[in-house]
Design goal:
By secondary structure, the protein is an alpha/beta fold. It is built from 24 helices and nine strands. Helix 2 runs antiparallel to helix 4 and helix 14 crosses helix 16. It is globular, with a radius of gyration of 27 Å. It starts with a helix and ends with a helix.
């Protein structure tokens, strides 16, 4: 609801601002929350406009220290702020009570998978005599129809429903997409974006303006690399020189017409449009340049309001081109990456905009379980594109520059390449060390300096990249560690899931990232302690590899001392030491920690068994 309120408070003409919330669960409590939010917005929006409030998310605004209000500086402001805060607390209490009551009811477990489409305009009937109402943006609740026997195409399917419903209700030419845990932190983002969309030099080919994802709950240590620094503080600046960054799922303003090909908008007759866009005549008309929505939003029985329910039905897209040539793209769990790629292939460009004051703030993952689930989904989606007919190395070069194709290919293949390479580096040298097989040149050999140069160059480049973007050595250490952890766990499973899907052995699955923070997990995250309460399937491979490297390091040191093999085994011993040093938090979770967030003894025992099996297989393979 704070996301909704912050979007309604954007500094933009209210008659041109329309806010739609997609509720895939079809939850009555979400609908009730929107109605309560609309009532509070009647007070919140005029207050923000009157005093030029920058922090337009109520929860964030009222959580600020009192010193932050000094700029507003009047007694009148203080009094009015207290009044608005009181109304906000009442709003929160009403929603909380309704939620508690709803939780006590006997709810059907299938309600989120089976429910009809619901489209409802929030608020009282429009009254021209009421000045405050005239200044309120349109607020619409949308729950698309869900049936367990239909494929719903995950987030991309929900976005396409919003695209259709908004097309006949308001048909705004520009669309801001926000995740539910990402709120507007500044009222000026829309106007900033329009500076680019109205720039005659780039506007005809500009598809979207992408803002970075930034988070309000990042700890100073950021052990999970939740800020995704490599992408938003480094890679996207480079991509901005190659016709713009990729689409990132949230915090972007996209031009509506970019999601419909030129042939759909201008070159097709009505029959062809029907085959592409579905059976709704009203929606097909909305693609015309001169279309004006004629829905009376205050009349729920209006014929065109009923049309929106058809547009939100699960069978609407049958035998159409939605997700293939129209709207947000399907066939990948990362619809943002795939849609951005197809837009760039069609000649569109994008812009990366990162003002000093964050325009949007969200809630990042604060535990290992959510991080690995999220990365598994991302890995699956990226590899889906990489090993499909849309492979950037094959599909891209004929439609975009080689550099841009390479950039997209790097993103699509990194889960697969990283998991393969890190599994090799974490197992083969160690098994060879345990068996007394030298794998690298002797430390006194000139060839040794080639390996040393490559290693130091890679580390130095990463450190420079981190420091030059405002990070520290601790940031570098955390990024190295979480890169290793994700590569041998979630990237592995994400890649395997796609390969099994291609072989017909599995189906793609979409597990949404948890949007609710757990106080205990947040406290542990702020302390810089890993929370290892995740599935055994994700944790066991990681612990097994740590066990292997402990054994290899101890064995290697003994060989160097007793047998004097320090020159032949130095590189392998150092590699095990480096892996253990970077992942000391895992060793600590296995041995030292006794709190609830430690690695459970059962996982440690299972990993020890897996280590024995790995050593047995390794000895058979490497000796031959």
């Amino acid at each position: 609801m704070n996301t909704v309120l912050s979007a309604m408070a954007l500094d933009y003409p209210p008659e041109k601002l329309h806010v739609y919330l997609s509720d895939d669960g079809g939850s009555s409590i979400t609908l009730l929350g929107m109605k309560e939010a609309w009532k509070f917005a009647r007070w919140w929006l005029p207050f923000c406009k009157k005093y030029g409030i920058k922090t337009i998310c109520p929860e964030a605004f009222f959580s600020c220290p009192d010193d932050d209000y000094d700029d507003y500086g009047s007694a009148e402001f203080t009094v009015e702020k207290q009044q608005i805060e009181t109304k906000y607390e009442i709003f929160k209490e009403q929603v909380t009570r309704a939620t508690e009551k709803w939780n006590l009811e006997d709810k059907s477990s299938n309600s989120c998978r089976d429910h009809p489409s619901v489209v409802e305009v929030i608020g009282e009937k429009y009254d021209e005599k009421t000045e405050d109402q005239a200044k309120m943006p349109l607020l619409v609740y949308v729950a698309r129809e869900k049936r367990s026997f239909y494929s719903h195409n995950f987030k991309a399917g929900a976005l396409n429903v919003l695209l259709r419903v908004s097309g006949v209700m308001s048909n705004s030419p520009y669309i801001l997409v926000l995740d539910c845990d990402m709120y507007c932190n500044d009222p000026t983002s829309a106007r900033r974006t329009m500076c680019f969309h109205f720039d005659s030099n780039i506007s005809p080919s500009l598809a979207f303006v992408q803002f970075p994802q930034k988070f309000h709950n990042i700890s100073k240590n950021d052990i999970y690399d939740s800020q995704i620094r490599t992408v938003f503080a480094s890679s996207y600046y480079g991509l901005d020189g190659l016709k713009g960054p990729m689409l990132s799922g949230t915090n972007f303003y996209i031009k509506r017409v970019s999601l419909f090909s030129l042939s759909v908008r201008k070159g097709m007759d009505l029959k062809e449009r029907k085959n592409s866009c579905g059976p709704s005549n009203e929606f097909r008309k909305s693609l015309d340049v001169d279309y004006e929505p004629s829905i009376d939003v205050s009349d729920s029985s209006n014929t065109l309001m009923q049309e929106t329910k058809l547009l939100a039905s699960c069978s609407y897209e049958k035998n159409s081109k939605w997700g293939e040539k129209v709207g947000f793209m399907y066939h990948s769990l990362v619809e943002d990456y795939f849609t951005g790629f197809t837009l760039h292939c069609k000649g569109w460009r994008s812009v990366y905009l990162n003002p000093e004051r964050p325009q949007f703030l969200g809630t990042s993952t604060t535990n290992l379980n959510d991080l690995l689930i999220q990365n598994t989904r991302w890995s699956s989606g990226l590899v889906q594109v990489g090993i499909s007919k849309f492979c950037p190395f094959i599909y891209g070069p004929l439609r975009m520059s080689l550099l841009q194709s390479t950039a997209y290919a790097e993103f699509s293949f990194f889960p697969l390449l990283y998991c393969l390479s890190l599994w090799c580096f974490a197992t083969i040298p160690q098994l060879c060390l345990l068996l007394g097989i030298p794998l690298y040149p002797e430390a006194s050999s000139s060839s040794f300096y080639v390996f040393l140069f490559i290693f130091l160059s890679a580390i130095s480049k990463h450190i420079y990249d981190v420091v030059s973007t405002g990070g520290s050595i601790i940031t570098w250490r955390n990024e190295q560690r979480i890169w290793m952890i994700k590569s041998v766990t979630s990237s592995l499973y994400g890649s395997l899931n796609v390969i099994m899907e291609k072989l017909g052995l599995a189906e793609a699955s979409f597990l949404p990232t948890n949007k609710v923070a757990d106080d205990e997990q947040v406290k542990r995250y702020q302390m810089g302690l890993f929370d290892f309460r995740t599935s055994t399937m994700l944790l066991a491979p990681l612990v097994t590899l740590v066990f292997l490297n402990i054994a290899a390091f101890v064995c290697g040191v003994l060989r160097m001392i007793v047998a004097g093999d320090w020159e032949t085994m130095f590189v392998q011993v150092f590699l095990s030491f480096y892996i253990l040093a970077m992942n000391y938090a895992v060793v600590e979770g296995m041995t030292v920690r006794k709190d609830n967030g430690r690695i459970s003894p059962s996982v440690t025992l299972l990993s020890a068994v897996l280590l024995v099996i790995l050593l047995f297989l390794g000895s058979i393979t490497l000796k031959h």
